[in-house]
């Protein structure tokens, strides 16, 4: 439970504050600031910065973000996003919190990175197919808008959350893929309601932070190895 702010480098401070500034400005420029969305994105960005440091506070903030994002998705009837974050991402973030606390690195300030083995890959493959099929059926029954992208979002979210729980450096790539899908989803939503343009911008910022997280974990993985 080490305070991650103490360990932020100048580059990470710049990335964190710059990301927050961009999302705040994008919301203000839109002319219709949604307080809930703005708070959720700020929490999400902070979570990603802490995740890049391998700090367990990232998972605690992800729990908060999942709740807020689930409410936002409910308002636009993106049932897939709502169900995914409240029914899957949030519980897995709780599980990841426990896993990360139980597996600290030697210096104790970050989680110990785990390399995937064949059993992990096989399990991820099987469960990803099962989750995709199950959620597609559920989303179809709920008449979810943009069902193809919503289903892909479920799959990428599952992979990202699972890799986070497994303490794999590839968790960040999973979230980066999910960010791309979410950018598409919210661009489509903004075609109906321009107020959602800032949400698409928000996930573009998430994408950049997740790429940084992957690079950061890979460097730390080499050191831990």
From TrEMBL:
It comes from the Bacteria. It is found in: Cell membrane. One of its GO terms (molecular function) is nicotinamide riboside transmembrane transporter activity. InterPro entries: NMN_transpt_PnuC (IPR006419). The keyword Transport applies. It is a multi-pass membrane protein. The keyword Cell membrane applies. Its main location: membrane. GO terms for cellular component: plasma membrane. The chain crosses the membrane at residues 12-29, 35-52, 57-76, 82-101, 121-139, 145-163, 170-189, 195-215. Pfam families: NMN_transporter. Keywords: Cell membrane, Membrane, Transmembrane, Transmembrane helix, Transport. PANTHER family: NICOTINAMIDE RIBOSIDE TRANSPORTER PNUC. Belongs to the nicotinamide ribonucleoside (NR) uptake permease (TC 4.B.1) family. This is Nicotinamide mononucleotide transporter PnuC.
